[in-house]
Design brief:
Strand content: 25-35%
Distance between the termini: 26 Å
Strand order of the largest sheet: 3-2-1-4-18-19-20
Helix content: 25-40%
Structural class: alpha/beta
Shape: globular
Radius of gyration: 21 Å
Largest sheet: 7 strands, mixed
Number of helices: 12
Length: about 375
């Protein structure tokens, strides 16, 4: 390091882990160090409670309610997340090519799951590859190669023949497709609202379920035994009553089902947590929902009865470990957020970052 190098000092309380608290860290050339650098004359100091950058494990950059968006809109989405302190996104399905984001040091890091894979006419128009079961293995292989270690299936959706939510894939097709993803080194997640798609997906080796509102006393122990994670997206589930109202006239069975899933949402998440199911923060931003809501999702976890420290972990230390990305460790990229007070004492502080540091640069 040159005598004239600029370094950043984060002083106060650095939450390296839930119980690992240090007094300071240093950022040198964009990387974290816990050793005070010698010879640094130009030091910028930031004070407060520091955490790893927040994680939104269910996010859609490059997508809105109608499908793919232009790059300038995707940029605004990513900047909204960044300014809210969300610095790592798992993009759980998008028709947009957002690889250009990887070249931008000022935008959050993205882990992509390729494009959604759905059954024909069983998902939102312009979002997914819409295919039949005989093609599922091939499309899973294709998206496994395009993504960053994840593939996204649509596990259930409205079945117009029954007027209710229904599973999209036969068990044999799921088993072969998930095996192919695993062979290629990718994990598989699936959109699931209802109850009847879950057992086949878990038995087929699924790694994660998005939303998971259909978990029951029978399936929660199976998830816990197999270590299948869930990303409940409670800020998105809050829209179920509005969705149900829009479907009352044409699909009353579906609408009633959606209301029942909504009514028990907190019990579902708390029961899964109590059983040892891994639970992580995700918002479903980018479809019909705004970006920058990770802090609101953490607050929803607390409302569901998850202890604050574990709710914070589900968006920071635990989420990064699950996704294979570093937190505030020596030599890692300095992606961190500084708050006025301890988020473990009151998670609402996550909604008001004092400073946001991305790749060692104070960006907010």
């Amino acid at each position: 390091m040159s005598d004239q190098s600029t370094v950043l000092r984060v002083k106060g309380r650095v939450l390296v882990g839930p119980e690992d608290v240090r007094d300071e860290l240093w950022v040198i050339d964009g990387r974290i160090s816990y050793d005070r650098p010698s010879g640094a004359r130009d030091v910028t100091t930031v004070e407060g409670w520091a955490l790893p950058g927040l994680v939104d494990a269910h996010c859609h950059v490059g997508l809105d309610a109608h499908g793919a968006v232009p790059a300038e809109v995707a940029e605004k989405q990513a900047l909204t997340d960044r300014d809210a302190g969300t610095l790592l996104l798992r993009d759980a399905g998008s028709p947009s090519d957002t690889r250009w984001v990887d070249d931008r040091e000022d935008l959050p890091k993205i882990i992509r799951a390729g494009r959604h894979i759905a059954r024909t006419r069983r998902y939102i128009r312009n979002y997914a590859h819409e295919i039949e079961p005989d093609d599922l293995v091939a499309y899973v292989g294709q998206e496994a190669r395009r993504g960053d270690g994840w593939v996204k299936l649509v596990g259930d959706w409205l079945d117009r023949s029954s007027g209710d939510l229904g599973a999209c894939w036969p068990a044999t097709a799921l088993k072969d497709a998930i095996a192919e993803a695993h062979r290629l080194g990718a994990r598989v997640t699936a959109h699931c609202f209802a109850e009847d798609s879950l057992v086949d997906l878990v038995e087929a080796g699924i790694d994660c379920i998005e939303h998971a509102t259909g978990l029951t006393e029978e399936t929660i122990p199976l998830f816990a035994e197999r270590g299948v994670a869930i990303v409940p997206t409670l800020v998105n589930i809050a829209t179920f009553p509005q969705l149900a109202s829009g479907g009352d006239a044409k699909f009353p069975i579906w609408a009633d089902h959606m209301r029942r899933l909504y009514d028990r949402r907190y019990d579902t998440v708390r029961s899964a947590y109590d059983a040892g199911v891994p639970v992580f923060v995700g918002t479903d931003a980018g479809g019909g929902l705004a970006h920058g809501l990770a802090a609101a999702e953490v607050a929803e976890f607390v409302t569901a009865g998850i202890p604050a420290v574990d709710a914070v972990s589900a968006a920071t230390w635990g989420a990064r470990q699950w996704l294979g990305r570093p937190g505030l460790v020596e030599g890692a990229a300095a992606d961190l957020v500084v708050y006025e007070t301890d988020p473990r004492a009151d998670v609402r502080v996550l909604g008001a970052p004092r400073r946001v540091v991305l790749n060692g640069v104070v960006v907010g």
